[in-house]
Specification:
single chain, alpha/beta, Rossmann fold, 3-stranded mixed β-sheet, 14 strands, about 40% helix, about 15% strand
């Protein structure tokens, strides 16, 4: 790898993308990040400049829903990390609002990368493309796919269909012009925020800190820190074991109630009063009759799905950090950047 190696990272303003760009720049790569609006470029550059050298960072405009800009975004690139994908805080009214840009946007990025002759593509998917519709008593691995024939929710369906479309597209290419391809399937991502760019996944922490929830339902989460997800992408970019594989990145499981108790103990000296009262399953099911949010919660009741993460840990030598510390780092970051404060809604 030379300093001139250029990596295009789609969705550069995203939570995982910002950490990945930071690690790529620190490793000596040049990075071109894609944005739907170039209005965000200066703010992203300033946020990353506070954490390292950004002299080899540039931006290009490209939208998942349009063809314009993708050829320019990939021109001269050696690698593509495709991260851009819609991530909702709540379930959409029309599932195609998520499915169409996720699937079609992935194909736009991959086509442009292949036309540009990139060496390798690493795509960000999710455990949502693995776990949907499966019995939680099973341990799932990279050979599993979410069952889109079941009512698994728009987000899980969008991630599944987008990733499958990408694999199918790569497989259909002539061998001589086919780039190497790998996929990272992270769990529920927590960790510190860069430049105020929070993620929908941080809502479980933010809402507890802002006391926007009356209590905590019986939901389990398969967690991972954003810095470890970013590291998996950077490793997969050049590791010999990566091509042709999916890698589940989950550090550990934790229930929502455990998360609330950890935060309550940690944040009490700072004046936060974290809700810890359990919300019984029967009440969640009742509220689901009237609330789209609780309807989504009701589908997730119970322990977290178990995942086999040996592929990432052994083949990529991936060693994730403690999620208790990640949880504390998340809370510290949200508080420091005024995304939430004791007794206040986010600024």
């Amino acid at each position: 790898m030379t300093r001139q190696d250029l990596v295009t990272v789609t969705g550069a303003s995203g939570f995982i993308a910002l950490h990945t760009i930071r690690q790529l720049l620190a490793a000596g790569y040049a990075v071109r990040g894609t944005l739907r609006s170039m209005d965000k470029a200066d703010g992203i550059a300033r946020a990353l400049a506070a954490r390292g050298d950004v002299s080899h960072l540039s931006f290009a405009r490209a939208d998942l829903t349009a063809d314009d800009g993708w050829d320019a975004a990939l021109e001269g690139a050696d690698y593509l990390i495709h991260m851009a994908s819609p991530v909702p805080a709540e379930a959409p009214k029309d599932e195609n609002d998520l499915i169409t840009p996720a699937r079609d946007g992935a194909l736009r990025a991959l086509r442009a990368a292949c036309d540009a002759g990139v060496k390798r593509i690493v795509m960000t998917s999710s455990i949502a493309a693995i776990s949907g519709g499966h019995d939680k008593s099973q341990q799932l691995d990279e050979g599993c796919w979410s069952d889109v024939t079941k009512d698994i929710g728009a987000y899980q369906k969008s991630k599944t269909l987008a990733e499958k479309a990408a694999w199918d597209y790569i497989a259909a290419l002539p061998v001589e012009s086919r780039p190497e391809f790998a996929v990272i399937n992270p769990g529920f991502v927590l960790g510190p925020v860069i430049g105020g760019q929070a993620s929908a996944s941080l809502e479980i922490v933010r809402r507890l800190m802002a006391r926007e929830v009356p209590g905590v339902p019986n939901i389990g989460f398969s967690l991972v820190d954003v810095r470890d997800v970013a590291a998996a992408h950077v490793t997969a970019l050049i590791h010999d074991a990566a091509p042709g594989s999916r890698f589940i990145c989950v550090a550990e499981s934790m229930s929502f109630r455990e998360i609330a108790r950890h935060l309550a103990d940690y944040l009490a000296p700072q004046g936060y009063k974290i809700p810890t009262r359990p919300v019984p399953d029967w009440l969640v099911h009742f509220l689901a009759l009237f609330s789209p949010t609780f309807k989504l919660v009701a589908t997730r009741l119970g322990p977290a799905t178990a995942f086999d993460t040996r592929a990432a840990r052994t083949r990529l030598d991936w060693q994730p950090r403690s999620m208790v510390q990640s949880l504390f780092d998340t809370a510290d970051s949200l508080g420091a950047q005024n995304i939430t404060r004791p007794g206040r809604t986010p600024s």
